[in-house]
Design goal:
Largest sheet of chain B: 6 strands, mixed
Number of helices of chain A: 4
Strand content of chain B: 25-35%
Oligomer: heterodimer
Radius of gyration of chain B: 20 Å
Shape of chain A: globular
Strand order of the largest sheet of chain B: 11-12-13-10-4-14
Structural class of chain B: alpha+beta
Strand content of chain A: 25-35%
Order of helices and strands of chain B: EHEEHEEHEEEHEEHEEEHEHHEEEEEE
Helix content of chain A: 10-25%
Largest interface: A-B, 12 and 16 residues
Chain lengths: 127, 363
């Protein structure tokens, strides 16, 4: 099975992606992760303004069959959360790199992104 | 330990199923998505491979007496071609297993087939044989789990789908009837039974013919994931979870299936259950519906609004039909009344919850 692994994202081994644009970064879970979980029915996310350290648990995504913790790929401050997921968590299954994004953050140290997996490295991990 | 596999394992793999270990069997948990499979059964039709369920036959002059004394329901009430839901209890009235007992559709012989839960076939066969010896009865008990495949076709369109493939006159069957015939040209038993709450049928056929029948039933294949959400919406019990002889020992009265106990028959556990019936139970299985967001799961605490422990979730999920978090738990009988306010503790957060009857869907 092959999964969508966009080149413009960096990846954490625990299956979160991060995509940066103009100093703001958007975070979500990967196509592989949503496929493993199956039908997502509930998401618990942090509040705007929360400070996250690298690798901090910032929430939970639950499918009918499993619960999975979410980890911050890098350190930063939460600037937005995807409120639509509260009522429509299925976006995570349908469009994990688009409408299914989880939160946006202002990065504490952009150089931390270099410690994450490239698309090629992540593809190696999941395929 | 090597997992047992269904005769359809290769087909499931080809269909891209995900597998899980269930009762010592490697079985498909999901083909498309649990939600899709669940919806197919509620609105149209879906098929399940349930070959992991045990199949044990009992025949011979004392087959009725033996089965009557090892199950709580009244086997003598069955005519050939009829089935009943029943429980198997120990001396203390604790449920060891729940089962459907079929009296096979042959007017001449007293032949029964009962269906223990996955992984319980050997234990139940031993139980029947041990008691047969102890009571000096004459009956042949045969574990046919590795001979019979079992498929379920369930949903409002199941009669049409199966009707085209079988010479069994489905319109003549009532709920809990079983008939002999062919399905897709294969000799099979067809029963109007199931575990989803929808109209549906279960088909028993020789292991070697399972692929023929499965392929002929052209509809959504469904895995154990959807089977679990479907049964939970109906409040049907899951062996090992909603009762377990050591980890969660429960009587049929506590589990809400006291109607399967016929105290005017003789069976192992009868005296204990008669006493339990007279004294009443302290806890009962109750339905829970979360008012707040969150998914209740097995093992989560149930408390009063003040945080006092009341019980533990035995089964829980997000109901795909109701789009509501639902669960089952044993709570003190004062909480049997619907509408009591309790809490389910989801990862440390007490979520507002109301008690309700354990059958969540009106079917």
């Amino acid at each position: 099975m092959s999964f969508d692994v966009p080149e413009d994202c960096r990846y954490r081994e625990s299956h979160e992606w991060i995509r940066t644009e103009d100093g703001t970064a958007r975070v979500g879970i990967t196509d592989f992760a949503q496929d493993e979980l199956g039908d997502v029915v509930f998401v618990e996310l942090p509040a705007e303004g929360d400070e996250l350290g690298t690798g901090d648990e910032f929430g939970v995504v639950e499918s009918i069959k499993a619960v999975s913790d979410l980890y911050a790929p890098v350190a930063g401050t939460v600037t937005a959360v995807n409120e639509t997921l509260r009522d429509e968590p299925e976006h995570i299954n349908e469009d994990p790199f688009g409408d299914g994004w989880l939160l946006e953050m202002e990065l504490a140290d952009e150089s931390e992104l270099d410690d994450l997996l490239s698309a090629a490295d992540y593809r190696d991990q999941v395929e | 330990m090597t997992l047992r596999t269904s005769p359809l394992a290769g087909r499931h793999e080809d269909a891209g199923a995900r597998f899980t270990d269930f009762g010592g069997w490697e079985m498909p948990v999901e083909f498309a998505s649990i939600r899709e499979e669940h919806a197919a059964v509620r609105s149209a039709v879906g098929k399940f491979d349930v070959s992991h369920m045990g199949q044990v036959t009992v025949s011979g002059p004392d087959a009725t007496k033996l089965t009557q004394r090892l199950t709580t329901n009244d086997v003598t009430a069955l005519d050939p071609g009829e089935a009943q839901y029943s429980t198997i209890t120990d001396e203390d009235g604790v449920i060891l297993d729940d089962t459907v007992v079929y009296r096979l559709p042959d007017g001449e012989r007293e032949d029964y087939l009962f269906v223990p839960n996955a992984g319980h076939d050997t234990e139940m066969t031993d139980r029947w044989e041990t008691h047969r010896e102890a009571w000096g009865l004459t009956a042949t008990v045969t574990d046919r789990t590795d001979e019979y495949a079992m498929l379920a076709v369930q949903g409002p369109e199941s009669k049409d789908r199966l009707g085209d493939l079988t010479d069994v006159r489905l319109s003549r069957l009532s709920r809990f009837d079983i008939a002999q015939g062919t399905v897709a040209g294969v000799e099979a038993l067809v029963a109007w039974t199931g575990y989803t709450g929808e109209q549906g049928f279960e088909i028993l056929c020789p292991w070697a013919d399972a692929e023929t029948v499965w392929a002929a039933l052209e509809c959504q294949p469904c895995g154990l994931g959807a089977r679990d959400t479907l049964r939970l919406e109906m409040g049907f019990l899951l062996s090992g979870q909603d009762f377990h002889p050591t980890e969660n020992p429960r009587t049929p009265y506590e589990a809400g299936i006291g109607w399967t106990v016929k105290l005017d028959t003789e069976f192992v556990g009868r005296d204990a259950l008669e006493a339990a019936h007279e004294e009443g139970v302290e806890e009962k299985l109750v339905g829970l519906e979360l008012v707040e967001r969150g998914v209740p799961r097995r093992g989560y605490d149930v408390t009063t609004p003040d945080g006092e422990h009341l019980g533990t979730v035995t089964s829980g999920t997000m109901s795909p039909t109701l789009d509501t978090p639902i669960a089952l738990a044993y709570l003190p009988v004062a909480y049997v009344e619907p509408g009591r306010s309790v809490r389910v503790v989801v990862r440390g957060e007490p979520k507002k919850t109301r008690t309700r009857p354990s059958q969540f869907l009106d079917r």
